[in-house]
Every structure is written in structure tokens, then in C-alpha cells.
Amino acid sequence: MTFTIYYLLFTIYYFPGLQSPSYLNFQLSIVNSQLWSDAWPAGLTMLGLGSGFALVLLIASIKLKVEVDPKVEQIHEALPNLDCGACGFAGCGQYAKAVLENPELLGKCAPGGPQTSAKIADILNLQVSDSGPQKRPIVHCRAHTDDKTIYAGYEGIESCTAANALANVQACAFGCLGYGDCTRACKFDALHIIDGLATVDYEKCTGCTACSKACPRNLIEMVPFSHENMMTVACSSKESGKSTRAICKVGCIGCGLCAKQSEQFVIENNLARVDYEKYQLTEKEETAMTKCPTKVIIYRGKSAPEPLQPKQKTTASA
Amino acid sequence: MDMVTTLLLAFISIVIINNLVFTKFLGICPYLGVSGRIDMAFGMGMAVTFVVTLSGTMTWMIDNWILMKLGLEVTRYVCFILVIAGAVQLVEMYVRKFFPSLYDSFGIFLPLITTNCAILGLCLFINLWEVDSLIEAVVLSFGAGIGFTMAICIMAGIRENLNLADVPDCLKGAPITLITAGLLALAFMGFAGMIR
Question: Which residues contact A151 (CB under 8 A, 6 or more apart)?
Fold first, then answer.
């Protein structure tokens, strides 16, 4: 319709018969009867066509109307709109729809965290139970290029999944390969390969779990960050202590020193793990950290202190 | 029989020899913009095919039965754009109703079909080539859509494989895409002159 009106004006103003479309002549041109008699069929045709299409679209808009529950819109607005897919749906729009139909899906939004869940619960008139602190990824490896033993140069596709399919690219079958599958999976530029090791930028991380799904070696675990910095055993090697020590300067050798200090450390398959269910920092854990012979117990988080370096002496033996 | 041959030739001509994307370089925006994944490219191609068939037919009818009769050929462009905009609106409503997931994945590209110059181009070409039967106009419009779908799907297929290729750093992203598009256009130049 707007088109039609504009076109009508346009035709009147610039019609070829007109000498000069200057502003002075405008008043004159309007009353020029010659012009009117030439232009009206064009205007009428356009008007007719325009109204015809308007009618068709009007009918179509009634026939093809999609009923959208206003709550879907509200939930969609409450979501962070990152379309990260952490919830298991293609995007925030789909999740909004799904959560409306099935409120049990509430709390799946990792980037939004408890706040978003609370907002959605408000819209749905539900009570939300406290789901605990937000989860953030921790890379269970701390070996930089110098710490690793690399058997062979890898010249294949620049991807951890591809490199992981080949045996012996890197001596450690559990550690970070550093080809950046997680970096590519991250939509928020929060993960970078720094000196051969995937390093999380906790300032930018939203906890969307994309990296933990992308890592072919399952190095990245989503951990509830109850504190700003979390203590962790940054290794995944299940090799015997001797083999781990032979191939990595900073691997967990499963010696059990930490478990002797604190109950929060559990040794399983030659590998120490922090039990995050009962995570509570005391002096005991600090002692365990300093006593760890390979210094694999470190802090990860927004303001994590520089990890301690293992003494050369202990790592040189193999 | 003669009619069938003409139509068949027209179809092959518009799909391969006078492909709007490869030989006229029309509709490059969606051709490069939505050709990242083959399923989306196909969906886009289908939407364009629908719009172009509808609008090509409609514009031929309006052009021949209304504008030419009234001597209003100057208003052709505006009328054509009106038809295309209307058709896109219709497609948008239809897709939203019956293929919501496709609707979500198109995002902004669906309304952008309005400004896809391949469609306006085709409508004007039909006029330029002096197509004088409705059925031929329909076949040409449909063929143009199929040609666009073919072009965008070929491009998407190549680009999916390109992701795994070892492209020099300076050519990553848009440059290699444009080079690919250029090579494809060159390849399709080989069909030129096959049908007179």
C-alpha cells in the first residue's frame, strides 16, 4: 500500500511531460490537467494491484496464523539468547517452548544459571529449588608443551579428534593434545590453547558445556564453582605412577600423599580426584597442594594463583 | 511435440546454460551467505524456487495482460517488486506455519528473498527475452529456481569439504569462497552456446 501511494506521488512529480521538476513548478504541476489525465491509469493500476495483494495477504495471514503462547515470548526474553545449545535444544527459542510444555526441563540453561531459572519459574508460577553454584569447566591436565613427551610430529588435520585417533602422537594417552577442538567449540572466545594446553578464560566463560562435549579425551569436567577459585587435580592419567612420571613432568602419579592429608582427595586408578560434593577448603588441602610431589594439585578460576612448579630433581628421575 | 521441445530447451537453458547465478551473477548474496551447510542451502533454494515460480508467473500475467494493454510498461519495476514482496510474505507465513524449524534456521534470510536480485532479474529477463506464452514463462521461472537451488547446493557441498581442506591462512573464509564461486562460474561458462 505504501508503495502505491509513493508511486502515485512519484508519477505525478516526475512525469516525463513535465519540463523541470523544480520546487517552483510543483504547485503548478499539481493543477496541470494534462499530467493528471496521463497519470491516473498508472496510479489506479498500482492501487488495484496493491489492494489485490493486500487482500490475498490478509486472507493468508488469517488462514496461516500461528498461535504463539505469550509465555514463550516471555521465557525467550528471560533466557540469555546465546543459542549455545547447552540445554540440549537447538536454540533458546526451542528451549523456551520445551520448558513451557515440560517444566521439569527448568534449570538446563547453563549460561543463565540460577537467576534465569528463577525468572522462568516466576513466569511459569513455579517454585525453584536451589540448584547450587554455577558450573564451570576445569581442564584436567596442566602439561604445557615443555612438560609433555611427544613421540612423533603430527602433520594431519588440526583437530584433537583426528590426532586422538592416531596412537602415540603424544606419549600421554590422557593429556591435552592442544589442537583446539574445545577452542572451536567455544562460542564465547573463552578457551584458548596456550603453549599446548587448553586454558579456560573464566571471565568470559558462561558454563555452556560445549567444550566438555567437544574434548575427545574427556579432559574437561563441569565443576560446581562454589568458590571463585577451585582446587583441582589437573591430570587425567590412569597410567601407573612410574609410567606417568616417565612421560610427563606434571602428571598425577597416584602416590596418595594428598589423600593422607585430606578426605576430600580420592585415589582411584592411579589418579587423585577432588570430591566436589564435599568441597571445603581448609589448611589440610593447602598442605596437600604443597606436598604434592609433581605439583599437579592446582587452583583454577578467575583469579587462580600461578601453579607451583615441580622441583627439577623429582621430575628428572624416570 | 514442438511445444514440449521448446519448453524442455527453455528449462535446460535456464538451469544450466543461462543459470542466473553462474552466468548473470545475480543472487550472489544468498548464494554466498546461506551456502555454509547443505541442508540450509537446499531449504533456501526451495524457498527461492517457490517465490520465483510464483512471482515469475504473476509478473508475466500482470505484464502481458494489464501493463502492456494499458501502455504502462514504465511501472513494470514497481509492479514486479510489489509482486515479489507479496510472494515472499506469503512464503514466510507458509513456512512459519508448516515448517517451524526451517523458519527458525532461516532467520533473516527469508525476508531477504525480497531483495534477491535473481528473482527481479528473472522477471525482467522473461520480459527482455520476449517470452510470449504463459506456460513458457512458468517453466522459465521454475527452471530459474531450480538453477539457483543447484548452484547454492553445489556451493554448499564444496564449502562443507573446504572446511577440512588446508587453505592458506590469507585465503581463509571469504576469499576462498569467492575464488570457488569464480571457478564454478568459469566451469559453467563451458555450457555457453550449447543451445541457440
Answer: A168, A169, A170, A171
